[in-house]
Amino acid sequence: MNVLERIEEKLMILADAAKYDVSCSSSGSKRKNTGGIGDASSSGICHTYTEDGRCVSLLKILLTNHCIYDCAFCVSRKSNDVKRAAFTVEEVVDLTMNFYRRNYIEGLFLSSGIFKNADFTMERLLRIVKKLRLEERYNGYIHLKTIPGASEELIQEAGLYVDRMSINLEMPTEAGLKLVAPEKSHDAVRKPLQFVNTKIQTFQNEKKLIKHTPTFVPAGQSTQMVIGATPENDWEIMSVADEFYKKYQLKRVYYSGYIPINNTDTNLPQIGTRPPLIRENRLYQTDWLLRFYNFSLNEILNPAFTQLDLDIDPKLGWALRNLHLFPVDINKADYQTIIRVPGIGRGSAMKIVSARKYGSLREYQLKKMGIAYNRAKHFITCADSVTPLGFKYAPQLKNIILQTGNSKYKQEIAENQLKLF
Amino acid sequence: MNYVFDGSYQGFLCCVFECFEMKEWHAVPVAEGLFQPDIFLPERTIFTDVDKAQRIQNGLKSKFGKLIVDDIYRAFLSEDPVAWQAAYYIMVRLFQGQTDVLENFGDTQVLYFHQTLKKVSRERHRMKAFIRFSKSNDGLYYAIIEPDFNVLPLILSFFRNRYADMPWIIYDVKRKYGFYYDTVAVSEIEIDTTEQKNLQSSSLTIALDERDELFKRLWKQYFKSTNIEARRNIKLHVQHVPKRYWKYLVEKQR
């Protein structure tokens, strides 16, 4: 086999093994081009999208898929019979630079199976990052996986060269994790997250006093949880996410619907089970409500209401449980109240608040501004609203919205529903 | 009153000047190529005067800030006559003293202006993402684009900053002009028609770098490997990467 075919095969194996890491964001860093090549775009750029509709921003590869661990949910686990491969440091650098110069990618996402031990793996990853930054004078985006259990010296040094670091929680709860990966624990994740977060804060504080402080993980940290492999409910999942956002100031928590890869472990969903895509979507929506819409977790999920509705979005679900807060008068309510109306996003809310200074807003104007009027109309009044006759109860309202709406999930949910007869 | 201008940005700004000079508040600017005489409306040809255009430009900048100047220019690049009229309407209102006209989203023209800006900005962002360079054997990176709007001027600084250490050409085949960066400065280029033909035909006259084909192949391989078959969602894929861009995307070539 010649060199070209070998590298193509390696790329096939190691990109395939890395694709279950869903993080693709290339945003949040403002690294400038200082006399070499590349810079980071603070809003991030998705250079293409795969046929499953996920964005491809970074060259996402494993350094190797050899691994000493045997986690039931992972393709690269020790006991799995798959082809193994490993890139050399030079190969990764060459691939990254040539893809980058052709504007295929926004940067590198580098992860790895654990070979020998954590420090050995981390040291190898660090070598690639340093070669890119120092020898190739590359200033593009780098997302590096922190290897749990690696020494703090190595992690700190890596932090000086990369834009984002992340460690995956894998399963939302400790109990779930023990079920499928007895060798791993949440503590092993918390410790490095905590360490990097403290360092980020220290560097940021120093930056306020000394201008030429080097950047340290400027795009922050993220983590990922697998959904649907273990029996946690949505409330448990979101509580963990909420805690991690607050405690470690994470930029993102990713939720990854479990895709069955084997039938050997009976604890896990078997091959042929559809990945829980709708549930995953609802969790992301909840995540957004928490971070950008000033919702607190117990408004959306709480011990009494532990599972999100699949057929309606979480904001609509919340509104239907809190009908006493509606209708909201679009021409009088403040911004914070308006963004809580189902069907109105932050952009439209901003437009509404800005536009109503020039006169009371009417229905045709709201429609043009791009709100989901079909959903929102049940929860708002505007200048020319007709007073509705009678009160609609939540289930009634939900039915009307579902029947008049055109949800992309309509078909799928209908298929998944159990039949009575 | 219809103002017929030559279709250039300067000419467009001159229409605003004319409007204030003649106190014709209901005039509408129309580009030469798109103009159809109207039996009920008088018309006047506006001659492009760089000084007048500059005065409008400076006035906008000093009174209302650089951001508004940029926005007007971006709306102009949309090449959409309706957006031009909206931009013109906004400039006239601004100079008349209605300084907060841009916040009135209830006004159809203002809303259309903002929506156009959004569209242009989206196209600009897409071009940053979808441009694919090929490397020729003398080390030049070149790319061909066909954007919906004339966004090439808006992405130059991005590419100059990012790819500062390599020479590149980005050429817009739809509007027949491009830019060349020689690792020091960016300059505008035009290719004559015979060369143009060569560019469009599949047999490129530019000799490629020997490893260029390899990296194209590797990129296609990566694109295939990173896809998760169980999550297949072509509708979403096409929504993000509309088919009209596939022509120049390496990963979408057979």
Description:
The complex is a heterodimer of chains A (421) and B (254). Chain A is α/β, with parallel strands linked by helices. Chain A has 2 domains: 3-300, TIM Barrel, CATH 3.20.20.70; 314-416, no CATH class. Chain A contains 16 helices and 10 strands. Chain A has helices at 3-18, 89-101, 118-135, 152-159, 174-180, 187-209, 234-248, 277-292, 297-300, 314-321, 335-338, 346-355, 363-369, 373-376, 394-404, 410-416, and strands spanning 48-49, 55-56, 58-62, 107-111, 141-145, 164-166, 221-227, 252-257, 328-329, 380-381. In chain A, strands 3-4-5-6-7-8 form a 6-stranded parallel sheet. A two-stranded antiparallel sheet of chain A has the order 1-2. In chain A, strands 9-10 form a two-stranded parallel ribbon. In chain A, strand 5, helix 4 (152-159) and strand 6 form a beta-alpha-beta unit. In chain A, helix 3 (118-135) runs parallel beside helix 4 (152-159) and helix 4 (152-159) crosses helix 6. The longest helix of chain A is centred in the middle third of the chain and has 23 residues, at 187-209. The N and C termini of chain A lie far apart (59 Å). The model of chain A has no long low-confidence stretch (mean pLDDT 91). Chain B has 3 domains: 2-123, no CATH class; 131-209, no CATH class; 210-254, no CATH class. In chain B, the strands form 2 sheets. In chain B, strands 4-5-6-7-8 form a 5-stranded mixed sheet, with helices on one face. A 3-stranded parallel sheet of chain B has the order 2-1-3. The termini of chain B are far apart.
